[in-house]
Amino acid sequence: MTYNVSLSTANNRARAISLVQKAPADWMAVIKPRSRSDEQNDKMWAMLADVAMAKPEGRHHIPDTWKAIFMAALGYEQLFEMGLDGRPFPLGFRSSKLTVAQMADLITFIAEYGDRHGVTWSNEA
């Protein structure tokens, strides 16, 4: 069984302490920042679609490629492999692994880039 406890309140912190104290000796506790939210993910993909449609600087990329471009620009490692169809695809750091703060930075970066390049943002973004 896995327990996920947000450390946002005193009661939750007490529950986490209790779970650690009662856990078997061969179990493990992990404390980490919260992962990006579904709302952030939805916003990012809407923004990436808007950037792809705008084709800034004459760049014709699909949203997945734009995501890799923006993540690489922010310093997240990206590896590219050649697919069976001859097109490259990104490997490496995934946006689902970003924390809330990292995702906020990515969204801000996409927005600033899009604003500088005349991207019209959809209602979803």
List the keywords:
single chain, mainly alpha, 46% helix
Q: By helix and strand content, what is the structural category?
A: mainly alpha
* SSE string, helices as H and strands as E: HHHEEH
Mean pLDDT over the residues: 91
Major sheet attributes = 2 strands, antiparallel
* Distance linking N and C termini: 37 Å
The strand line-up of the biggest sheet is 1-2
Q: Write down how many β-strands occur, each being a DSSP E stretch of 2 or more residues.
A: 2
The general outline is elongated
For the CA atoms, what is the radius of gyration?
Answer: 19 Å
Q: Which regions contain 5 or more consecutive residues with pLDDT less than 50? A: none
State the helicity in percent bands: 40-55%
- How big a fraction of the residues is strand? 5-15%
Please report the number of helical segments. 4
